[in-house]
Design a protein that fits this description.
Elements lengths: L3 H21 L10 E7 L5 E7 L7 H11 L1 H12 L8 E6 L2 H14 L31
Parallel strand pairs: 2-3
Antiparallel strand pairs: 1-2
Helix pairs in contact: 1-3
GO molecular function, one term: ribosomal small subunit binding
Keywords: Cytoplasm, Ribosome biogenesis
Protein name: Ribosome-binding factor A
Length: 145
Amino acid sequence: MESKRQQKVSSLLQQELATVFQRDLPHLFPGLAPGIVGVRVSPDLGVARVYLSQLLMREGSGQEMLDMVHDNQKLIRQALAKRVRQTLRIVPDLVFFLDDSAAYAAKMDEVFGKLDIPNAEPDANEQPDAEAPKRPRLFKDDSES
């Protein structure tokens, strides 16, 4: 369970990193626009785990994007520091991960789609054509009197 301070710092870092990738350093990622799926900050606010994703990724471009981010990690942290210097005393170390939850969900959807689930058979004790038992009446209707 994250503390409120961790949640606030995570939210701030997510917003500012998105701005860094889109406005400050787009030239570092030609043809690849990394998106920030989430940021998780350690309890001491010293390390931030950043989960990256890219919509409409071609095969293998996720790892390519992650390699580019790792190569330019120092520049990214410096640009982030300029944006959060008034809010945070120390900029956390950034550790980048590729978020593959969308690919995992697509794979699970495909697996479930291939399953052949037979219809449930009625119990031998059940009589499917029998009428339902009548419910007891709590109040007399005017029509019965």
